[in-house]
Amino acid sequence: MNEPATPVEAPSDDENRPVSNLRQKAMLLLWLWLALMILTVVYLLYARGMFASTQRLTLIAEDAEGVVVGMDMSFAGFSIGRVARIELAEEGNARILIDVPTKDARWLRSSSVFTMERGLVGGTRIRAYSGVRDDPPLEDGAVRPLLRGDALAELPRMTAAAREMLDNLKAMTASDAALMTTLANVQQVTDKLKGPQGGLGVLLGNEDAARQLVERSNALLMRADTLASRLDKLVARADRQLLGEGKGQDGLVADARQSVQQLNGLLSEARGSLQKVDVVLVKAQEIAGNTSEATVDLAALRGEIEVTLRKVDHLVKEINRKWPLARDTEIKLP
Amino acid sequence: MTSVQAFNRCLTSLFKGGDTRPMSLSSLQSAQESRPHGRQRLLVIFRAWQRTLLLAAQIVVLAFSPASYRPAARRQQILAAVYWATAPHLSAFLTLSALISVVLIRIVVASAQSYGLSQYALGLLVRTLVLELIPLYAAMFAAVRYSLPGAHHVRERLADLPASGGSAAEQRLLRDELLPRALAAAFSVQLLATLSGLLALVLAYLMVYGLSPWGLSAYTHSVGQVFTLPVSLIFALKTFFFSLAVAIVPMAASAQRDQRGRYRRSSDILEFARLFSVVLTIEILSLIGNYY
């Protein structure tokens, strides 16, 4: 009735085997386990920041939804603090108490801003921003507001805006809305455009005015046609005056051509006269040069004459002094 | 015996917890006819687990009793059991654990990077691998390699006792056979889980940051973020109860008398199923504690 159980190799066979230094080896295992446990506990305590000195920062938020004890506060992507406690303040706000290690507290300034961001993916994040690094460092126990930068919080606002837009759209597309009235008017206009009067009927409003406008337009067109035929005659006459009718009757153009030819001849004659004048001018220039040289000689001559006259004047004065009887002191120059 | 019958017997034993002797096909039908139903069946299951808990309590009391360690020969016996429960399996278990860890770490890290969620990869690894999987398979490994064969040996020894054995002989057996094996199995689970957990942490660091030491601070921070006080407490309690279950459940099942007051041999798969159900219950409770 009893089936034999699955045969299992009993450990007693191994255990009966003699092992050298069994006690030492067993004790070594026990000590190894103890050491590993102590190492693990110490490492975890270190990882939890139990051995680091911290300073306390209190952030006041409207609500602490998504914030859990132990979550990080990051600065430029690095964790510089950890949420230690969350409590409800007397004012109904959430107080988030954060432990910031002293070595990381230097990144926080008195002007630092703290935000809580809640993304569509992932948990809530608390971030710190220090715009002015020269400000004094954040003091221990500081209380700061926690600003919301929430993607999910935007959703209700977006929903409200979308609903408002849909309401407007609905009002616009209602049967008594201005847009629908306009569209109805446009429909009427297009119907009139398709009618016998077409666009004129739309522009002038009634059929008689449109007919009158058409008749006047036709009369105007006839007058314009008459005017155009008279203009044609005028142009033909002008053509005749200008170009002539041939057979010895030259027009203004032929006369102008002859005049131009005569003018060319006059110009060639004038060119020859000018060449002669050039020769005369060259000679006049030579004469002027000679005259200027003569003028230089005249100046020397004048100087000599003046010297001679002064000598003569001196001589006359000498004679007059020596011969006082002479009364006539006038000297006649040559 | 067909596999269906074996499975049926396994389930019956798992929930019944009492007589776990193997049956033939003809005896199975008669047994089904005489099987208790409804309230009576629940009573049988309740009594079986009550006996297991009682024996577990006795082993715990003996473990905390200084008299259990007083003779030097018994201390030597306990140390030998500790050695045989741990040392021969260390290399195999650490190799297996490293292999599983590397595969899981690679999968998690690559998946997280492909989804752009690499900042959550380390936390996820520590939570799944170190907190949940490693204690579980360390317990199963110690159970399969030491505790269940040890329980089989104890049952063989007990089966040699007369059906109306006195309580003194039972006490002696408890102290001489069960206690050293239970302590050794519990220690084995603890040491294997601790070593394997640390190995997984080191492998995770190496696979994420390589041999660079500059990621140590960020890595330590990530690990510390996972091990909050409640999580650490639940992890320690879970590992402790795993080791207790591995130490006691197979031994308690082996030390149970049947209705005729005799110790009978049972299948290892049934004992393993019973142990696994206990371990799974502990795991589920820890998950509820951690995440609900």
Summary of the model, kept short:
The complex is a heterodimer of chains A (334) and B (292). With 334 residues, chain A is α/β, with parallel strands linked by helices.
Brief descriptors of the model:
heterodimer, A: 334 residues, alpha/beta, seven-stranded mixed beta barrel, two-stranded antiparallel sheet, 9 strands, B: 292 residues, mainly alpha, 0% strand
User: From the helix content, strand content and strand pairing of chain B, which structural class follows?
Assistant: mainly alpha
- Give the oligomer, counting copies of the same chain as homo and different chains as hetero: heterodimer
Number of domains of chain B: 1
Largest interface (C-beta under 8 Å)? A-B, 41 and 46 residues
Please list the strands of the largest sheet of chain A in the order they lie side by side.
Answer: 1-4-3-2-6-5-7
Number of strands of chain B: 0
The share of residues in extended strands of chain B comes to under 5%
Shape of chain A: flat
Structural Rg of chain B:
22 Å
Give the helix proportion of chain B (percent range): over 70%
Q: What share of the residues of chain A lie within helices?
A: 40-55%
Low-confidence stretches of chain A: 1-11
How many strands, which pairing sense, and closed or not: the largest β-sheet of chain A?
7 strands, mixed, barrel
Distance between the termini of chain A: 190 Å
Shape of chain B: elongated
SS summary, helix count of chain B = 9
What order do the SSEs of chain A take from the amino end to the carboxyl end, as H and E? HHEEEEEEEHHHHEEH
- SSE run of chain B: HHHHHHHHH
Overall pLDDT of chain A, averaged? 83
Percent strand of chain A: 15-25%
How many E-type strands of chain A?
A: 9
